[in-house]
Write a structure and sequence with these properties.
Number of strands: 2
Radius of gyration: 22 Å
Strand content: under 5%
Number of helices: 23
Strand order of the largest sheet: 1-2
Region (Disordered): 94-116
InterPro entries: TPR-like_helical_dom_sf (IPR011990)
Shape: globular
Organism: Streptomyces venezuelae
Protein name: Transcriptional regulator
Number of domains: 3
Structural class: mainly alpha
Largest sheet: 2 strands, parallel
Oligomer: single chain
Distance between the termini: 27 Å
């Protein structure tokens, strides 16, 4: 799940004077201790120390990660991130993992999009217009050109302009997916991907760092487009894109990209009904991530493995993986968390666990975790519209299976309301299953309302 010239690693750092002023007379170490105390007050865990405080004040961390955001806003009620001297999240979403001047931007949710997410753009995605989606992606195509133009650059040096364009493609696509889902975006997003790989084949770079960023950006773009295919039900396409990213990682010896590719492959295998492959891919991701230093990444990988064990009906294996996932997650966010993990907070943890219990037929436990996921997402990360819809759809399905049709219908209606903004074949398929489960209860008023609304959606989809 990327940078623009405004957010590139070449931009000179500006000291965060607002944050320094808030520290007052406390030493960096004393202030770090205050941050850790504040985190405990709200049930969060952060590994804040004097070095972290110094990096914030020096401007190295332009936007804090999800955990630090909650803590800072708790410490300074009534203030925004901008008041604390940080940059808007939309500027740092999707930065390349190898551009390390802003590592804390990597895991964070970002502010609700403003002018970049106008009603016009929302309607463009709902209609699926190719021209409209192209406009939403902005000037990426103009910068990258098409694959034929990229091929004409064979032998020419590839520089910052092209690398920025690839990273910007990742950033914009992830922003749009988080807000609207994959269905209106997938085919258009494949064009920058083809161009990025043509650039890799056609040109040479000025510096090794530029080369590293280009291959990393192309690999992340392949995973991003693969996820769009995955979420829109194009499993074969997704498998191909993930394999392309994995090959890129292996050729360039990029462990972080390899871990990401295997992590997504495990998720895809689970959804495609290949749970044993999901377990193997998750374990491969764990081996790749072993020396990357991110507890949150290892937690997510453990959840992918848990999903595979659940699909196999192996309750013990699933519980062991879930236990590892929780233990790793509780160690808190860190500087080494990958940039693409902005979605992975308490809501996603609960949502993925709900899916495990659902696969094992433990409907009551699944309901509890799905309800928690939907509630936390709505209150803490309202900008992740697609995920809120996903968690609520999971809740509706689990409620229907646990014999609570009225509650299931109510959750289903909430999902229908969100589908004015979100296009996701995955979510629509979940709703269709819920509708089938509720058909025997269609005489109930609430269930009838949901079924009628779903029928309208099915006719207009």
């Amino acid at each position: 799940m990327a940078s623009s010239p405004m957010t590139s690693s070449t931009q000179s750092k500006r000291p965060n004077l607002a944050f320094r002023q808030l520290r007052g007379q406390l030493s960096p170490g004393e202030f770090a201790a205050a941050v850790r105390r504040a985190a405990r007050e709200i049930g969060e865990r952060v590994s804040c120390d004097a070095r972290y405080v110094g990096r914030v004040e020096a401007g190295e961390i332009r936007c804090p990660n999800y955990a630090y955001e909650r803590v800072f806003l708790h410490m300074f009620p009534g203030r925004t991130l901008a008041d604390l001297g940080f940059a808007p999240r939309a500027q740092v979403r999707g930065r390349a993992a190898r551009s390390r001047t802003e590592p804390e931007a990597q895991q964070t949710p970002y502010a609700v999009q403003t002018h970049e997410e106008s009603d016009v753009r929302r309607r463009a995605f709902m209609t699926g217009s190719t021209a409209a989606v192209a406009a939403a992606l902005g000037p990426i195509g103009l910068t990258l050109g098409d694959p034929a133009e990229a091929a004409d650059r064979r032998g020419r040096r590839i520089g910052e302009t092209e690398v920025h364009a690839v990273e910007e493609a990742v950033r914009r696509i992830r922003l749009l997916d988080d807000r609207h889902g994959a269905d209106g975006l997938y085919r258009r997003a494949a064009a920058p991907l083809r161009t990025a790989y043509t650039l890799l084949d056609a040109g040479t770079t000025v510096r090794q760092t530029t080369s590293d960023r280009l291959h990393a950006g192309a690999g992340e773009l392949a995973i991003t487009v693969g996820w769009l295919a995955h979420d829109s039900g194009r499993f074969d396409d997704a498998r191909s894109h993930y394999a392309e990213a994995l090959a890129t990682a292996r050729v360039y010896g990029d462990a972080a990209l390899e871990a990401h590719a295997f992590c997504n492959t495990a998720f895809l295998a689970r959804d495609a009904g290949r749970p044993r492959e999901a377990v193997r891919a998750a374990q491969a991701a764990g081996r790749a991530a072993r020396h990357l230093g991110s507890h949150r990444l290892s937690s997510l990988i453990a959840l992918r493995e848990a999903g595979g064990w659940a699909g196999l009906g192996d309750r013990a294996g699933c519980e062991q993986a879930l236990s590892r996932a929780h233990g790793l997650f509780d160690r808190g966010a860190g500087d080494d968390d990958p940039e693409w993990m902005s979605f992975f907070g308490p809501a996603e943890l609960a949502g993925l666990e709900a899916q495990c219990w659902s696969a094992l037929g433990e409907w009551a436990r699944a309901v509890g975790h799905a309800r928690l996921a939907a509630s936390v997402a709505a209150s803490q990360t309202p900008q992740f519209t697609r995920n809120i819809a996903l968690y609520t759809a999971e809740l509706a399905d689990d409620l229907a299976r646990s014999g609570r049709p009225d509650e299931a219908a109510d959750a289903g209606l909430r999902v229908l309301a969100l589908l004015g903004e979100v296009q996701s074949s995955r979510i629509q398929a979940m709703l269709a299953t819920t509708a089938r489960l509720l058909l025997p209860h269609r005489s109930d008023a609430g269930v009838s309302e949901f079924l009628e609304g779903h029928a309208v959606l099915s006719r207009t989809a």
